[in-house]
Write a structure and sequence with these properties.
Blueprint (H helix, E strand, L loop, with lengths): L2 E5 L5 E5 L3 H30 L3 H4 L1 H21 L5 H6 L1 E5 L7 H9 L1 H5 L4 H9 L6 H6 L1 E5 L30 H17 L2 H15 L8 H18 L1
Antiparallel strand pairs: 1-2, 3-4
Length: about 240
């Protein structure tokens, strides 16, 4: 499986498996069939309600009818944290070049450049994916995103938020010096550590964070420290 080494926000490289082209293709076909089904079903319903010429007679309804089709990929990736329904079925996901969750503006850029990627019989996007070292289409290059295969990392969570007990007592207020982007990257790294039992990676990340925040861990292990930071961040964020 093709992998890419990304420099995380903690200046430590982590490997992520690149989504194979055929899985991206099948995800696109799945999404296309979903959208085609939507257009057909809603068209049948509107015809029965408004008549055969509803598109001409009710332009505003036609505009509303097209909006879900036009906005599908943008809204799905925002709502499902980097996945459309097709991507979810094929277990692939959009992440940033730092290994974290993209921002809304990055999703928006990918969506805006979709027209260029699929123009001229999909040739721009196809050649961009095939020739790119990280299998990026044009929209990915500009947005700073890649698509990874999540089959090797099913324990990853989709957001930075983690359940915490009502009686939870935080220990590291310094964690609030980290950004949402840092925490999101940290959560992905914790998933990698758990999956691969890569304690050396956990140790290096823990050392980097302690140095960056001028603090010392009080936990029994590096992974416990990282998980504690994640919980503390969630606690302070929800209590703010």
């Amino acid at each position: 499986m093709l992998v890419v080494r990304l420099d995380t926000g903690f200046n430590i490289e982590v490997e992520f498996p690149i989504a194979p082209f055929h899985r991206r293709l099948f995800a696109w076909i799945t999404d296309f069939l979903i959208l085609l089904s939507y257009l057909w079903v809603v068209n049948v319903i509107l015809k029965s309600m408004l008549g055969d010429f509803w598109i001409v007679e009710y332009e505003w309804v036609y505009i509303l009818y097209l909006l879900p089709y036009l906005l599908y990929h943008l809204l799905m990736e925002i709502i499902l944290n980097g996945q459309s329904l097709g991507k979810k079925v094929m277990r692939i996901k959009v992440i940033t070049m730092e290994g974290g969750q993209p921002t809304i503006s990055q999703y928006l850029i990918r969506w805006m450049f979709r027209l260029i990627d699929i123009g001229l019989f999909f040739l721009p996007g196809f050649f961009s994916v095939i020739l790119s070292a990280r299998s990026q289409r044009i929209g990915d290059h500009i947005a700073g995103t890649i698509i990874i295969d999540t089959r090797a990392s099913t324990s990853w969570q989709d957001t930075i938020f983690t359940e915490i007990e009502s009686s939870y007592k935080p220990k590291y207020p310094q964690v609030m010096q980290l950004s949402d982007k840092d925490i999101n990257t940290l959560k992905s790294i914790i998933g990698v550590v758990r999956k691969r039992a890569d304690h050396e990676l956990a140790h290096r990340i823990a050392d980097r964070i302690q140095s960056r925040l001028s603090m010392q861990s009080e936990e029994e292990s590096s992974i416990a420290f990282l998980e504690r930071l994640l919980k503390d961040y969630n606690y302070y964020s929800t209590k703010a």
